[in-house]
Each structure stands twice: as structure tokens, then as C-alpha cells.
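User: Run a structure prediction on this.
Assistant: Running it now.
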Amino acid sequence: MAHAQADFTQVPVLNVHKENIVKFQPLLVHDIQGCDFLAVDCELSGLGDRKKLNAPTIDDRYKNTCLVAKTRSVISLGLSLFRLVPNSTTNSVSHWTYSVKTYNLLVLCSEDYIVEPASLQFLVQHGFDFCAQYRLGIGYNRGNDAPEKETPGKQPLREIFAEMVKAKKPIVFHNGLIDLIFLYHNFWAALPTQLGTFTSDIIEMFPAGIYDTKYIADYVSRTQASFLEFVFRKEQKTNAEKSAKDRPHVKLVFDQKEMDGVEWRLCGLEVDPEASAEPEVCFSYAHHGHCPAGNSCKLSHNIDSILRQKNEEQDRKRRKRKIDDTETPENGSKETRNAGDDNANIKGAPPTPANSGGHRAGYDAFMTAFSFSTFLVHQTQLPAVPDSFWPAGIKADKLANKIYLVCKDFPLLVQKSAFAKCSVQHDAKMRKLGLYGEEVQ
């Protein structure tokens, strides 16, 4: 086995497309069956009207997102599979080591779908190759399964997704509601009309727990920002610091290094933050992880600079609270947060070309999975050797089945309802796969 690292600087991602899917599908299925949890990320051809996706009522959000999923498509699917490697000393809790496999599947919907110029421009700026997608994308059809007369192997993406359901592993997303809806409609079955039916379906599909690292970052870990690249970078830096002090941390082993089709994604921590001049950091990117100006923005999008400055801002607030508590102990009011004040003086180094950044499905799935692995260490009482990775086994009941909702102060609870049954198409799919009648842990 390769050397385990807490301070990794690059990540191998295996690119899978229609010319090598026959070769790699058995390996991917084997890794799904053998992992302890997996993270998923989708790149999409568009999202439509953002205001409708963030409608005031959750039912309207679901209906509007379903309309988008029926008219847009998945263009890239990322899977990152983490398998816990037992430590030589089973009672040691200094670190948890995971063997990691990460896949980036290039996919192409065989039906007509809407392509939004803004989404395409954004993806091109982050290195997505649309020529490769149309040339090498793995074909699939949306909605319900095609008739049985189709030969096995004709819909490899549906077969892979079915294996994810059959494996009954915890599944992790970042801001996962849209991903869940797109995955369901593109690779499982036609979407049900009601949100309650949808949640009843997906809790049966993923009974080992559905996790959302954006929810965990915002409501449990309370990070200064919760966009994926920031959360990952903060957890990566914190993990390396804890490793250096021999405090509980995560180590990774990458087992895809020598495989054909592997692309290396660079993510080394900055070495000398004082080495460069410091232009102003982009306010939009520092808050949300994206910028309307894209690569033409004249301000810095460097994530290390953003993280450093937010940490400094947090330290200043902490010192100020201590002074205020000392001088006016009778004042117990909570400090009001002003986003503009938080970042009025943010500055940062120029973008570091050594690092690849996010917004590629495979790498984003890895960032999500790694962040989840460190959240388990820092936010739960994770056993050295869990009996299972179901919520009770990893002490994660407070984190499970809560999906982040934009502009809401509560999550979507994914749970069975006495007032909503599973959909007919989901029921038929589960019976077809032989998944009913099995004991649920």
C-alpha cells in the first residue's frame, strides 16, 4: 500500500469515458461495494432561474428544480470513494487512514436538453472540455428505465448508480438538493410530483445516511464561509496542523497513482504567504466561491489568501469579544454580523498556479469526501474502528439526513413520512433490483 499522508499536495482523479468504461466499470463497482462512504458531485448544463430554485416554500423549490432537471442534463459525474484502513493499533485514536479512489465520468445525455451559455462559459473557464464531452461522453437516457429488450451494458451509468443504491453506503454531497434531484431523474427514475414522495424514495435508496457538508460547515462546524473550496481548504490546513501536533486527524492513501487515465489535481498548501505583494481579494468570491467576472476579475480569487484573512478577521473578533466581556460583563447580547464589515479589508496573494481549483466533478467529489472525513473527527465521537458507517456506528446521527437549503435557517430533513408513500416508479425499480425484503440496519 502507498504511503499514508495527512499533508497531501495532489490528488489522482481517474477519467472515465465511453472508450474506457468497459475497462473501468467493474473496478468502479468493486470500489463502490468496498468503500465505507462515497461523495458525489454533478456538473450540469444549466440551472435555469436561480430565484425559482430558491423559492420561499420548499415545495415550490422542489417543483421548480424538477422542471430544471427535466430540461437540463448532467454533463460530468464525480465519485470519490473512501475506505477506512484499520490502524495497526486498534485502540489508537490519533488518526484515521482512508484508502481513496476518485473517478470523473464524462457523460452525454442522448435526449435533447437545454444548454445555458453562462454555465458553459463558467465551466470552460475552469477547464471543462466540451469537445471531449461530445466525442467521449457516456450516453444515457433520463427518466424511467428503457424496455427490458435493451442488452446489459447499454446503460452503464444506470448500472453504476444502481450499484450505489444496492451497496447501502453513506452518501455525501455539498449543497446536495439539486444533485439529488438530478441524479434521481437522470439515472434512477422519473421524478415524483411531491417533495414528500421524493424524500421517502431517497431515504430508501440511501438508508445508511445522506450527508451535506455545506449544512455541516454552516450549522455545526460554523466555518466563516461554506462554499466547497473554502471548506475543503480550511479542513485540509487544520488537518495538517493537527497531524504535526499528533492530535486526531485524517491520513489518505491514493491507490490510483499508476493507472492509465489518471489526471493529477494539485492542492498543496501555501508555503510562504508573505512572499508576494497582496492585491485586494474579490469580495464575491470570498463570500460565495464564484465571481460574475470569472477569470477576467482583476481581484484575487486565491483561496489561501481568503482563508488567511478570514482567520485573521475571526481572531480580531475573538479578541474584541474578550475585551468587551472584561469591560462590560453585564452585556450578554450577541454580536451582529455584517458581511460587508467582515471583508472590508480583505487582501490576498495572486492566484497560485500550482493549485488546480475546484469545479470539476471528480475533484469536487474528493473535496466533499475529505471534508466529511475530517468533520467526523472534529464534530463526532468517531470510534477508532467503527462497527459500521451507518449514523449510529460513526456517532453522526446529528449530521445525517439534513440537506442544506439556501436562504433558510433550517435544513431539509430527509425522512419517511406517515403522509407520503414511495413513488410507483421507485417501488418498481427497487423490486427489479431485489432490494425489498432486506433487513435495514
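Confidence is low (pLDDT under 50) at residues 326-354.
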